[in-house]
Amino acid sequence: MKNIEVIARKELSSYLSSPMAYIVAAIFLALSGTFFATYLAGTNYTDTSIRGFLDASQILILLFAAVLTMRLVAEERKLGTWEFLLTSPVRESEIILGKFLAGLAVLSGMLALTLYYPLLLMVFGDPDLGPIATSYLGLFLLGSACLAVGIFASSLTSNQIVSAVVAGGLLFVLWFLGALANILPDAFGKIMVYLSLAHHFPGFTKGIVDTRAVVYYLSLSVLFNYLAIGLIETDRLR
Amino acid sequence: MFIRAHSWLNKIKKTKMIRIENVSKYYGARPAVEDISFNVAKGETVGFLGPNAAGKTTTMRIITGYLMPSRGNVHIAGYNMAHNALEGRRHIGYLPESVPLYLDMTTRAYLGYAARLRGLDKAKTTSRVNAVMERCGLLEYGDVVLAKLSKGFRQRVGLAQAIIHDPDVLILDEPTVGIDPIQVAQTRRLIRELGADRTILLSTHILPEVSMICERVVIIHQGRIVAQDRIENLSAVLGGSNRIQLKIEGPAAAVSERLGRLDGIRSVTYQPPFHILEPSADSEPRTAIMQAIFQNGWSLLSMEPVEMSLEDIFLRLTAKEG
After folding, report:
1. Most buried pick, A119, B60, B118, B139, via CB within 10 A?
2. Is A73 on the interface with B (CB under 8 A)?
3. Which residues of A touch B81 (CB under 8 A)?
4. Model-level pTM?
């Protein structure tokens, strides 16, 4: 447990001392803020929801998770620090979980920075806070699943670009999996819909916390972290 | 009775801090090391020698647990690295061939991270980082970002992270490569100091370094161990040279000519200020040499056997298959 914390702290300070996290956060805020505002303008300010922000950020999170996680393992392989880490008395699971937690912290920070959208709504109107709270929960869970996929991709390679492209690819496939329902037989189609990242998100925006959705995102997080741990364990067997 | 025997057994196990048994490693079908066995006793400093691509780095990566061997066993401080890797790794300080630095961190932050990863608590980390920075001459560079350090200082930081948790086993992969001569001397001195109460395995292809630092050498070539012994024994085992080195006061050319005519002398070479004689096998020409010198009125200042240098040993051993 202590090792996870040590690694997470180090990764977090690496994030904060390099421009990447700031650039990602800045672009995220600029884009999501624009969509937040334009949506409200589109309703002639009759709506007081964060729908504009949500529509944009659910896709943006996929991209940014792929970019934020690309360095986590791949860079260490390139720098040679992987040898430093793997010969220290820490478990593979502690390495991956530490890095995952650092990613989650950056994601939480980014989401926290967007809290001024609902604050603005509260100042100028009377928003329904329930759906807003569940939306943030949804974004956090979705982000967590995306980060896990990103770490898995980073564990595959020593090339950060490859990692980002693989992570982005995997995430978009998972997102649009539901579209396959149109060409597959009924039962298979339903399975694909259920397995898609997109299918479980809208509930949160309506204020519904569906256990299945929570379980789905958590399962993805666990699964891809687990796969990443398995991958780096095989590093020693090369 | 049983207890005594047990503790005695434990002692034997413990005194071998590094135990490598029949280790092989294949990359695909290609063997990188094959059937390697050797031990390093507690407190010993052993040089691990070999030409490039002989398998030195692979072997060290297996010892430190970075790679698992395809076959065979490695024990560190009595822990089997296949089953108790974490315990074993706690005892190891490792400087890999390419110094593993997070270039965006400062020296102090990096060493602190290394200390915490090796299990030191916060309070101990601060004092240990300071002590190690002082020992490695890094005190003034504590707040410098690692990317800005020169190669020599990066190497020092690499050594500092290896000893940050005061491990009893040190594995150093080419610790003096690529740094300037003054720093090389400092690094060697540091390694010798560290070796006083630690077990060290150090790889290098700089042969004089080995005779300066190490008590024993293990020589690897094409993935196999071709020799391991104390340095002085190795030259004896190889039966190598029985050459004699003389320092004589007298006209060099005449001396060469006279000594060359002696029975049992195959050749004489003059490398000022020494005459080097190569006697034929089984002859003992020393008496004849001295008489010849006295008869001519020259004086003999020194006479000693020429030790085979590590270079000679190395060339001879590795040339066998080539």
Report:
1. B60
2. no
3. none
4. 0.85
User: Do A59 and A76 touch, CB atoms closer than 8 A?
Assistant: no
Q: Which residues of A touch B115 (CB under 8 A)?
A: none
Q: Which backbone phi and psi does A30 adopt, to 5 degrees?
A: -60, -50
* CA separation, residue B274 to residues A77, B235, B247, B287 (Å): 53, 21, 5, 18
A98 to chain B, minimum CA–CA distance in Å?
12
Option in B87, B117, B161 nearest A6 (CB): B117
Buried/exposed B203-233: b ≥16 CB within 10 Å, e otherwise: bbeebebbeebbbbbbbbbbbbbbbbbebee
> Does residue A10 sit at the B interface (CB-CB below 8 Å)?
yes
Best of B68, B91, B95, B117 to substitute, by most chain A Cβ atoms within 10 angstroms, is: B117
CB A151 within 8 A of CB A96: yes
Which of A18, A89, A237 comes nearest B89 by C-beta?
A: A89
Query: What Cα–Cα distance (Å) separates residue A164 from each residue in A71, A223, B210?
Result: 9, 19, 46
Q: Is-contact B116 B125, C-beta < 8 A?
A: yes
Residue of chain A whose alpha carbon sits nearest to that of B32:
A238
Cα separation of B79 and B266, whole Å? Answer: 54
- The angle at the Cα of A226, spanning A220 to A228, to the nearest 5 degrees, equals 105
Let me know: does B100 contact B110? Beta carbons within 8 Å. Answer: no
Task: Number of A to B CB contacts under 8 A, please give it.
Answer: 66
What are the C-alpha distances in Å from B37 to residues B113, B164, B228, B233? Answer: 34, 29, 10, 19
B92-95/B265-271 β-pairing: unpaired
Q: What SS3 class is residue A18?
A: coil
**Beta carbons of A84 and B114 less than 8 Å apart:** yes
pLDDT in tens, chain A (238 residues): 899 999 999 999 999 998 999 999 999 999 999 999 999 999 988 888 899 999 999 999 999 999 999 999 999 999 999 999 999 999 999 999 999 999 999 999 999 999 999 999 999 888 999 999 999 999 999 999 999 999 999 999 999 999 999 999 999 999 998 888 778 888 888 888 899 999 999 999 999 999 999 999 999 999 999 999 999 999 888 7
CA distance A150 to chain B (A): 21
With contacts defined as CB-CB under 8 Å, which chain B residues touch A88?
A: 89, 114, 117-118
Which residue in B23, B60, B116 has the most chain A C-beta atoms within 10 A of its own C-beta, making it the best mutation to test that interface?
B116
Q: In what order do the strands lie in the sheet with B199-204?
A: B92-95, B169-173, B199-204, B45-49, B216-221, B224-230
CA distance B202 to chain A (A): 17
From the list A83, A90, A238, the residue facing B100 with the nearest CB is A83
Respond yes or no on whether the N-terminal peptide bond of residue B100 is cis (omega within 30° of 0).
Answer: no
| Single-letter residue type at A53 | F
Q: Which residue type does B147 have?
A: A
Residue B207 tokens read as 């042969």
